[in-house]
């Protein structure tokens, strides 16, 4: 598992239609995308990632762990990245909302934020 600061990814400037200060970061051509919520004390039990998976914190706080079961705290603006097959778990004492994106190859795209 890697904890990534998503604000370090290289965005491509978009100026279409007079847009300014707008950047996009393509991460996958095809993906399964969900908004996940955990109530205070909730847990997404340990399970293997079917494909590469990133959990991007939107609100609240969560503890995430990967194969090594070492807990890392995530807050809005950070994300956890798991590779296909990696066992992982997410829990939240106060509750959280996150965007989860599952897609083949997303780990390679997001690896640049880990450097």
Question: Explain this structure to me?
Answer:
This protein has 1 helix and 11 strands, in the order E-E-E-E-E-E-E-E-E-E-E-H. With about 120 residues, the protein is mostly beta strands. The strands form 3 sheets. It has a 5-stranded antiparallel beta sheet with strand order 1-9-6-11-4. A 4-stranded antiparallel beta sheet has the order 5-10-7-8, with no helix packed on it. Strand 2 and strand 3 (about 20-25) form a beta hairpin. The two termini are about 15 Å apart. The mean pLDDT is about 85.
Topology of this structure?
Elements: E1 2-5, E2 12-14, E3 22-24, E4 32-38, E5 42-48, E6 53-60, E7 62-65, E8 72-74, E9 78-82, E10 87-92, E11 96-102, H1 106-110
Antiparallel strand pairs: 1-9, 2-3, 4-11, 5-10, 6-9, 6-11, 7-8, 7-10
């Amino acid at each position: 598992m890697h904890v990534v600061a998503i604000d370090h990814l290289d965005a491509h400037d978009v100026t279409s239609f007079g847009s300014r200060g707008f950047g996009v970061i393509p991460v996958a051509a095809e993906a399964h995308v969900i908004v996940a919520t955990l109530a205070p004390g909730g847990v997404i039990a340990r399970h293997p990632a079917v494909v590469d998976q990133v959990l991007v914190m939107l609100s609240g706080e969560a503890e995430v762990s990967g194969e090594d079961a070492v807990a890392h705290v995530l807050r809005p603006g950070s994300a956890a990245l798991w590779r296909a097959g990696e066992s992982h778990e997410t829990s939240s004492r106060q509750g959280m909302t996150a965007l989860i994106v599952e897609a083949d190859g997303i780990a390679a795209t997001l690896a640049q934020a880990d450097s």
